[in-house]
Amino acid sequence: MTLIAIQDLYQTTAIACFTVDDERRRILFSTNYGGSYDVWELCLDSLETNRFTFSNQHSSSLFTYDGSVLATFDRDGDEYYQWHRVMDDGQIIPLSEDENGSTAYFASFTSQGHIYYSTNHLNPLINVMRYDAVLGTKTLVQKGEAAPIVCAAVAPDESSYVYTESYSNTHVPAYCMVDGVSQPMIPGAIGPYSTQDVLYDGGDRIYFLTDYGEDFHYLASYKPSTGLFQKELSIEGENMKGLCKVQDELILTTEKGVRDHLHRYFPEEGNCTRIDAPCDTFNQLKATSDGTLLLLGSSAHASDAIYRLSLDGRWECLTPYRVKNKRVKPVAVEYPSFDGLTIEGILYRPDEPNGVTILWPHGGPQKSERLKDRPLLQYLALNGYTIFAPNFRGSIGYGASFMKRVEGDWGVGPRLDCVAGMDWLIAEGLAEKGRIAVMGGSYGGYMSLLLSGRHPEYFCGTVDIFGISDLISYVEAAPETLKPLIVNLVGDPVGQREKLVAESPITYVEDMAGPMLVIHGKNDARVRPEESERIVGRLRERGIPVQYILLEDEGHSFSKHDNEVRVYQEIKHFLDTLL
């Protein structure tokens, strides 16, 4: 077998987000191309790229107006994103020193140079603020009172705006604020439903995606002047996730299981056609002022890239990315779970299997494993490991009813879906009981620990990355802004204490399969490092071999190549000892 070095997979880039600067004919994008995250610029005419900032920090949102560049940055993965002005020399200056230590959430931008953004500064239920890029002033727009709010879109003349209230990931109603009066976008709506990707088409028509009354998100419209809500378009079996306006047409992105799709829709004619896409999963969609469509996405065998759609229907890759080595192309598979529910998963099959299979439960849990770039999984698959990633109940892309199955059930249904997946692997000859390693991050780390304690007979080792060991301490330590959502998802540590104890991995530490590798970021604001330290301490008391890596300059993910390379090498070394 030809072994692959991790550095060979890092001839590629990860791109977090991008924006278009039409005035200067350039794209600004947040990427780790230089070894850690910074903002880079790409000239749309010459396709030359240059590093624009030198802060070594991750940006989650970018905005340009009249030559000014504004961007959010956190600090070494702590996810306390704050708006900064980027100077011509690359220096970044905070827009508001008093918001230091708070988090700036979703933002909407206007042609007048205003940023409408949400922040938990002084209010855990979030306030909507408006920042004027010309005057350098900020104004309070709305206070969150019933639930965390974000400004989803603003009318071109700023006469109205749309905001959402988040009660859970599957209950996000939307409202239109006109002259200080709030109107529900779906009048008379009853029961939980969600709203996403809001787009003004002129001043009196608003397009948005919702799953109200349906299992999948569809395209709907709302008219502020009349209060009329109307269902516009649905695509059977596909969940709409994004939209963008290009001249007189809408470009829609949908997800169906592990893949995304692109569609072109003409509202006046009612015609909808599919567009061939250059990759399998999409992160962001934008258009330039002349109507050129830009897409950020990746595939399991190709890393993040920004693509441009030409007039002849061909996609051109604009950003530098290289795949030096052959990649393992995973396939989508299905299997029946313990109660007959069909579960889809992704399977990586190496050319020369080494005898150990890795079960990879994804994070979220209301996310899913998809056909996107996963350097760690590629690295391990190219070195002989069979990898199986099940999209257990609660995963997105399979409808709202499937997604809601994990709410209040973190540790039973999804766990048994994973067990059924392992039994399927064994029956198919793809795994051997006792020769499976379980590995995951965040919720996937929690599930890895829980499976190790509840079903140790399947496993030869465990890798926990940023995982949760105790649901009670996890909920109690949650930020006040997120606590209502987390309680809805996980459970109430007071009223449901017995249930949370039963679903906490630390309850089963006496039965856990060893050895174990535990990894955490010191600046993790979502899952505190204490969650890993607690389980590591208990394992060591039992005499179970456990290695603990605490990353001093990371949070709930990896933002620096050096850390990522180090961790992935440690994971492979750990797994190699199980062979």
From TrEMBL:
InterPro entries: 6-blade_b-propeller_TolB-like, AB_hydrolase_fold, Peptidase_S9_cat. GO terms for molecular function: serine-type endopeptidase activity. It comes from the Bacteria. Signal peptide: none annotated. It comes from Rossellomorea marisflavi. The keyword Oxidoreductase does not apply. Keywords: Hydrolase. Pfam families: Peptidase_S9 (PF00326). One of its GO terms (biological process) is proteolysis. PANTHER family: DIPEPTIDYL PEPTIDASE FAMILY MEMBER 6, SERINE PEPTIDASE S9 FAMILY MEMBER. The keyword Lyase does not apply. Residues 377-577 form the Peptidase S9 prolyl oligopeptidase catalytic domain. This is Peptidase S9 prolyl oligopeptidase catalytic domain-containing protein.
